[in-house]
Amino acid sequence: MKYLAAYLLLALAGNETPSAADIKSVLSSVGIDAEGDRLDKVIAELEGKNLQELISEGSTKLASVPSGGGGAAAPAAAAAGGAAAPAEEKKEEKEEEESDEDMGFGLFD
């Protein structure tokens, strides 16, 4: 990923075909040693390709990836559990408050 990021930075700066030496200099400026094999692979994969097309193609692929956080599971569990779920939540909140008091300070003190 760091090799790709350096390649993209160089491309955005106007260097349309960054070399391995260019990428190594960018990475070394932030204290990263470049591995030759991986760097050569990145350059070989991107050689002769339009970066804008690759980015737009990747964006459409990412748009099709499900990225839900499981938010629908909580209401379903509450509906299935009925009144038992709110009682458990209150008990958990009480335990959390007690643990904060034990520490001797609050979050916003």
TrEMBL record:
Residues 73-86 have a biased composition (Low complexity). Residues 1-20 form the signal peptide. Residues 60-109 are annotated as: Disordered. Keywords: Ribonucleoprotein, Ribosomal protein, Signal. It comes from the Eukaryota. Residues 94-103 have a biased composition (Acidic residues). GO terms for cellular component: cytosolic large ribosomal subunit. CDD domains: Ribosomal_P2. Coiled coil: none annotated. GO terms for molecular function: structural constituent of ribosome. GO terms for biological process: cytoplasmic translational elongation. Gene3D superfamilies: 1.10.10.1410. InterPro entries: P1/P2_N_sf, Ribosomal_P1/P2, Ribosomal_P2. Belongs to the eukaryotic ribosomal protein P1/P2 family. P1 and P2 exist as dimers at the large ribosomal subunit. This is 60S acidic ribosomal protein P2. It comes from Penicillium arizonense.
